[in-house]
Amino acid sequence: MTEYQLKDREKAILRFVIHQFILTANPVGSRNVSKKYDLGLSPASIRNVMADLEEMGLLDHPHTSAGRVPTDKGYRVYVDSLMDPPVIDISAKKIVDENLTLQNETEELLKITSAILSDLTNQLALVTYPRFEQAELEKIQLVKLTSKRILVVVSVKSGLIKTITLEVDAEVKEEQLSSIQQILNERLCGLKFSEIRATFQERVKDISSEKYRPIIRVFLDSVDKIFTDTKSVDKTFIAGTKKMLTHPEFFDHEKFQSVIELVENKDIIIHVLDKNKEEAKSDLAISIGQENKDEKLSDYSMISKEYKIGDLTGTLGIMGPKRMDYSKIIAAVVYIAEQLTEELTKQR
C-alpha cells in the first residue's frame, strides 16, 4: 500500500490515530477521534474509514479492544508523508550547542553526545566510534617498549590514532625501528586500511636484511590486526536504558528483559544499524519494526544518521518502541549529527 493511493480522509484519520496512539499508548476508537479532532465526520463514518485502513494493513485491531493501533506499514506511511516536518526547538538546540563545545577529547565528546541524545528523545541512544576502514594512513610510528616489545602508533588523516603492542622474536634496537618506520611510511602512507591489508606482503617482500626481518615478520603476522577496524564496536556509547524502560511497552517483564539483553549484546544493534544504513537512500536511516534485519528488534524503531570526522564516518541514533514522536526525534538526531560533525571538524 503506497501513500498516494490513500484518500484525504484516510490520510487524516490515519494521522490522527497515530498521533493519539503516540500520546496515550492505548488503542484509538472512532469516538475518540471524533471528539478530539474536528473532521466533520460522524463516529460511524470514521469507524468505516478505520476499517478500510485496517484492510489495507495500516491499522490493527487488538482483540481485547474496540480501538485500533498502527501497524509497521501504518507507521511507515506516517513517517514518509503524514507527520509534521522535523524541526528541533530552540531550547533543545541550546542544550546541544552548550554541551558539545565543552569536550575536547573525541571519546568524551561521543560519550556526552549519546547522553544528550537520550535526554532529548527519552529513548536509548547510541553513538559508534568513527570507522577506520576507509581511512587513509597518515603515518606509522614505532616505539620501543622493552627489548622485545614495540608499540605501533597508526595515525589516519582525520586526526584519529590507533595503537597496538607487538611482541618481536628477537631483540629490537632503536636504529632498526627508525629505519623500518621510514620504510613503512614511504610505502604505506596515503593508502586505505583495506588496501594495506591486501598488498602489504607485496610491498615489503624486497626487505631482506637480516636485522629487519624479525620486525617485518611480526608485521606480516599482525597486518590484519593492525589495519582492521575493531574500535567502532568496542567503543560504542549507549545511554538511556532506564529512560526506555519507563515506556509502557516495557512494563512486561519479558520485554523488559529483552531490552537489557540487547544493551548487553550491543553488536546486534550495531549490525542492524549498519544494515539499515546500507539500505537507506540517504545518510538518515529510519527502520520500523520488522524492517529491522533482526527478529529481536521487531518491536523497535531505529533512527540513525552518519556523522563525519575528516574522511571517516560514525553513526549516531536512537532505538525505542515503535510508538514514538518520530518528527521530534528525527529532528534531534539530524541536528546532533550535524553539530557533532562540526565540532569534530573544529578539533582536527
TrEMBL record:
InterPro entries: GAF-like_dom_sf, HrcA, HrcA_C, WH-like_DNA-bd_sf, WH_DNA-bd_sf, WHTH_transcript_rep_HrcA_IDD. GO terms for molecular function: DNA binding. SUPFAM superfamilies: GAF domain-like (SSF55781), Winged helix' DNA-binding domain (SSF46785). One of its GO terms (biological process) is negative regulation of DNA-templated transcription. Keywords: Repressor, Stress response, Transcription, Transcription regulation. It comes from the Bacteria. Residues 107-330 form the Heat-inducible transcription repressor HrcA C-terminal domain. Pfam families: HrcA. Negative regulator of class I heat shock genes (grpE-dnaK-dnaJ and groELS operons). Prevents heat-shock induction of these operons. Belongs to the HrcA family. HAMAP family: HrcA. PANTHER family: HEAT-INDUCIBLE TRANSCRIPTION REPRESSOR HRCA. This is Heat-inducible transcription repressor HrcA. It comes from Stygiobacter electus.
